[in-house]
Predict the 3D structure of the following.
Amino acid sequence: MAQYPGRHAIVVGGGIIGLAIAWEAARRGHRITLVDPDPAGGATHAAAGMLAPVSELHYREEHLLDLTLASAQLYPDFVDRLTAAAGQPVGYQQTGTMVAAVDAADRQSLSDLHQAQTRLGLQSERLTTRSARRMEPMLGPQLTGAFLASADHQVDPRAMAAALQTALAGRPDYHRLTARATGVLSMGGCVTGVRLEDGTTVTADEVVLANGLSAAGMDGLPDGLSLPLRPVYGDILRLNVPQALRPLLTRTVRAVVCGRQVYVVPRADGTVVIGATQRENGSAGVSAGGVYELLRDAQTVIPAVAELELQETICRPRPGTADNAPLLGRCRGQDGQDVAGLLLATGFFRHGVLLAPLAARLCAELIDGAKPFMDVERYRPDRFVEEGAL
Amino acid sequence: MLQEHTQTGTPDTRISDDPQTDDEPLVIDGVALRSRLVMGTGGAPSIDGLAEALEESGTELTTVAMRRYSPEVGGSLFELLNRRRIRVLPNTAGCFTAREAVMTAQLAREALETNWVKLEVIADERTLLPDAVELVDAAESLVADGFQVFAYTNDDPALAYRLEQLGVAAVMPLGAPIGTGLGILNPHNIELIVSRANVPVVLDAGIGTASDAALAMELGCDAVLLATAVTRAQHPARMAAAFRHAVTAGRLASAAGRIPKREHALASSSMEGRPDL
């Protein structure tokens, strides 16, 4: 039960994280003001929506499984409630993910990763290339190895963001401001609201910064708080599969192609999403070279990709942090105590869609004044101290 | 009778726990580098992971692809290198023509205020081998424009010599194609390049594991440059430490005068001249 019911929370940022937090908090009886000039227009608009704790495992980031597995477990229930509340689908599919290797070194690297996954108790099944191609006949014949991560699912982030907006819009305790927040207001060491671009201010009991990269540039953050967010651009493609070739795939296929990563995510409407590059060259436009590489590598794995209709190429920055882990929860002020009234939920990098239900629940519990259902101390937003600041 | 001992263990010849500190530094363009391991940054899993690996490697010089990383982006790689006071060697990775490479070098000079550049002109995507003709053209232009050119080149002694004659600051022959981890495929050519060079020779590309780096130093290279072998290892920091030791070990061995390779066995304690006890 909420310790402080009926509080007013401002959620800055209407991407999938901010929307999920807003909805979860509203459901718990809090009054919500969402501030975003273009909700669901950032990384959420680009993301493929893979919910893949197993196949997205990276060496030396095993600790992130705490979050990714927990959030994957929250998904079915979250989706059920959201679909019922909004009355519209979110494209949640539990069809599993196949991971394929193209050359001998790719097979070796996937085999090593499979061992690491198995050691961690994750479910990853080795397939023969023949059985992999029986399951997905559009895969090309040059596969050298394949694995099946049955627990890696997918959602359609655009559909999910739309459902969240529908579910929120129907609530009397919800307000949306189509504006950009430029800073947080404080009084006596507590955060009390936000300032908007036009100079007006909005006060609240709690401010949640879920505005991705923009969080770092907010005025009025606690002294000494360094949010090392950087843009990691991703190019991503959407293609229509002609009737004759449907279904192109029945589950998500990720592949390592001569050391490079590519994925092809089939949607219920017959289209596919192909992604994604990771660029830090500061260029926000769609990269021609990025599109070329994605298509080339996807076509190597699935030759029929060449027959698809290219519908959309877009690029968005993911908010990256130095340790690839999110900035989640409260942060300390100068007195060493947590700053009251301020919550952060950003820096989700590659995992924003997967971690949305978890971020929503944690932040809603913190707004409630309740003890969070899991310990996320190691993801504190204030864990990065500027070198030389001490 | 036992031979009389000469004086041993003068401070000048004693090997300390960290031989790196005893070695003369590698000097390029007046800059002294104590670490002979040059690190690339491509493929790093995270900024923190890279920071840890750089720390363990002991490197003082790190190369960054100007086409992949923008110095203007906050929270990026460049801030990390700045904080750690690791010198940046911008490179022209991803360039296929001399023109692109020269333009990339000029942009790097402007953005990073350094006239050092690792010149990389690639022939094709499949092999990532240097294109000798474009490389020579670009090297010539860049030297004329005042750059200190670190030329990434094939393991071709004639080409390496040509680049040196054109005025590059260092020649960087490959051990094997970039990212392959195949080690040093033609040690004889590397030795030949070293034997003729009057500029530093840095073995660049193809390194897979620690012994490859030790071999490069044993062959007489002045330094080793690697990226993938560390950044894509399962435990990058541990692999970086392994390379720090390997480069030091290879450097020591190359200066220690190895024994000749023999066809037949030779007992380490010979029977002749043994004292009668």
